[in-house]
Amino acid sequence: MQESQRIAAIVIEKVLGGSNLDKAFEYVAKDLKEFENKAQTKAITYGVLRNMAQSNYLINSLVKNKIDNRLVESLLHVALFQLSQSTHSEFTIVNQAVKASKKIDFRKSNFVNAVLRNYLRNKKVLTKDLQNNQETKFNYPNWWINKVKIQYKNDWTDILNIGNNHPPLTIRINKRKIDVKSYTKLLENENILFTKLTREGLILKNSLNVEDIPGFENGLFSVQDFGAQLTSELLDLKENHLVLDACGAPGGKTTAILENCNVKLISLDKSFLRANKIKENLSRLKLKAKVIATALDEKNKWWDKNQFDRILLDVPCSASGIVRRHVDIKWLRRPGDFDKFAKNQLDMLNNAWPLLKPKGKLLYVTCSIFKEENQDVISIFCKLQGNAIRRDLKFPKDIYHIKNQLIPSINHDGLYYEILEKK
Questions:
Q1: So which residues are the catalytic ones?
Q2: Which of these, 87, 71, 62, 79, lies nearest to 16 by C-alpha position?
């Protein structure tokens, strides 16, 4: 266990330093490759980040002076999380954490031992204190909690709690290759439990590697959140439409569009590596689109001046609606970030708009729950562009939403959709 604790602590230390979780895992990729218990390490890391407000409170309560080694502090986060969850015997957790601390800084092992044993002596009182503190009760920064409270007076507790749950494993059946009824028989034959959603969506109840789900190599399905699966339908696609997916990676929405309708599609992404991911997904599903590794910008030098019938603009955002999938987000975001995101989102709308035909439609999408990136951006854009008309959207019955905002639920993430038609 000590090696799981040590590697998890390194990842946590990187996140505390401002790195996102994916890059932090890349940093320890070699250690993980050579280590047998990768699943345990990742489970610990995700658990710590989901509950970091609690372990942070405990460290502040148990340690008088600032810890000068952030990796040792990260190890305490790991061990305190494990002790609070009772995943193993208390003796084992403490003993293994002390051994792990010796590999980090031998001089700090007595300190780590003292802090953890002090926690165990006062566990009952400290656990009670956690429930009397808003930040530690919900495991989000106070500013985030208050923001959700203000914007969602009736749903705020559910939104926060959903964000701390494990996300569902949701797939989209490739109806070009197999119908839903036939595919569900494949799952039943493998004793894989599922919940059927509207149209091509299924939530799998078994914990599986994607490669082990029937039909992965044959392109019978794609992993995609149910809320994100709505894109191709909301675009109101017609045969032979010229379509732009302006932020295409990793390719989930690009491939969903092509599965739904015979269109001519261009998919952009500013990252060469991420553009290659789109190509990989297209290849697996035997679908065709033109993929260009470039950014949507003011000049759009890649564009041949043929205007598009439909544009999908899935813009970079705070990711506040998918925090259960990206557990580091709530600790990396800052209150001032939203102005920066909103400015970029407005710029991208302005850069995409000239590419759209008159009577064409642009679908604006974020995975945010905050209005600064959603309703506010669209309102400003429509004031700037006198030829943009906001059209009504209709959602399936198993989508929980308030107007155009999908509220995070057991079925789907928190996405925002807006359809704009050009006069």
A1: 367
A2: 71
Closest CA to 55 of 14, 90, 84: 84
Question: Does residue 10 sit in helix, strand or coil?
Answer: helix
Domain map of the chain by residue range? Answer: 2-138, 169-223, 228-422
Q: Mean pLDDT over residues 282-303, rounded? A: 95
Residue 244, beta-bridge partner list: 266, 311
Question: In 203-251, which residue ranges form alpha helices assigned H by DSSP?
Answer: 231-234
How many Cα neighbours within 13 Å face the side chain of 275? 15
The confidence score (pLDDT) of residue 199 equals 86
- Per CATH, 2-138 and 169-223 having the same topology is answered no
Whether 1 shows a pLDDT value over 90: the answer reads no
Classify domain 169-223 by CATH architecture: 2-Layer Sandwich (3.30)
Question: Which CATH superfamily, name and number, covers 2-138?
Answer: NusB-like (1.10.940.10)
User: Token digits for 390?
Assistant: 């906001």
- pLDDT tens figures, 111-151: 999 999 999 999 999 999 999 999 999 999 999 999 999 99
Task: Work out the average pLDDT over 11-35.
Answer: 89
Element (H, E) at 125: helix 123-131
Please report how many Cα atoms fall inside a 13 Å half-sphere around the Cα of residue 192, on the Cβ side.
22
Q: CB-side exposure of 339: number of CA atoms within 13 Å?
A: 3
Q: Which fold is adopted by the domain 228-422?
A: Rossmann fold (3.40.50)
Helix axes 2-16, 90-104, angle to 10 degrees: 60
Query: Which tokens in the block code for residue 343?
Result: 């400015």
With b meaning 16 or more CB within 10 Å and e meaning fewer, what string describes 205-223? Answer: eeeeeeeebbbbeebbbbe
Hey, is 389 helix, strand or coil? strand
Taking residue 191's Cβ as centre, other Cβ atoms within 10 Å add up to 7
The pLDDT of residue 286: 93
Overall size of the chain counted in residues:
423
Residue pair 364/313 in contact (Cβ under 8 Å)? The answer is yes
Check: CB of residue 364 under 8 Å from CB of residue 378: yes
Nearest CA to 250 out of 281, 223, 288 is that of 281
